[in-house]
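Dear colleagues,

As part of the handover before I leave the project, I'm documenting each prediction I ran so the next person doesn't have to rerun anything. This entry is a single chain, and its sequence is reproduced below.
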Amino acid sequence: MAEVHHFTYGAFNPIAAFLLAFVGSFFGLLSTSRARDARTRGRRNRWLVIAAFAIGGGAIWLMHFTAMLGFEVPASPVRFDVPVTVTSLVFAVGAVGVGLLMVGHGRRSLPKVVVAGVLTGGGVLAMHYTGMRAMHMGGEIHYNVPLVAASVIIAVVAATVALWFTVSVRGYLPISGAAAIMAVAVCGMHYTGMAALSVHLDPVAPPVVEGFRPLAMIVPITLITAATIIGVALSGLQAMTEEEFTDGAGSPRRGLHAEPGNAWSLKQATAATATIAARRPSPRPVPMRTPTNG
């Protein structure tokens, strides 16, 4: 069995992974909080999709591959298969999206959250072990079954707790605390799954491994991280702006906060006033009385 390093760069990878998990969870919980206040199904779905990318893409997938940059097998090169890596991203966002859509509509209930948590946790596990399948090295990967089972339990519990947070917490302080708990759970699931891994190298064939080097993944991961954060922020700001200038049901507000395209502008108000004035009959002159001497 080959020697395996999980913290090649020291504390940098786990700290960076935790921060990504926290930021993604924080943005996601903010989005689900806005979704609960949406008055139309379309707008609620929009906020839930934003939350799915924030939690699934940022808090889970980006956290996973940031932590994976610290993984090393000294006796063999480690390479990544890009198509399989992208597939794991689809699993993460899709699983979180399904769970959020399940709990984001209708009445809040514990059984519904538990069912959604099991499905979402299964998707998170599919993301993790698909991401592990994307690693190529000069040997075979084996897993410790009890530790894999532990990672399954952590994933399902973490997903269920996260979904409960998405339908219950409000306010920046509670959301920050919930995001920290979610980040700890996501990191715990990841490193439990990684602890289950062992590598058995081929003693005969030289390690010829195809794929991308881990350090070569820094640039695309950085770009995806920036695009995810910027995309989530811009989508959230756009949705907030639309809700600010409408009454929540899609119709424009009248007055100061109306949408520019449908605004009750000063020009329209002046024209309306002129029309009303033109239709109003002009007052008749009041005849002057000549004072009479008493």
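Residues 251-269 have pLDDT under 50 and may be disordered. The first strand starts at residue 79 and ends at 80.

All the best with the project,
I.
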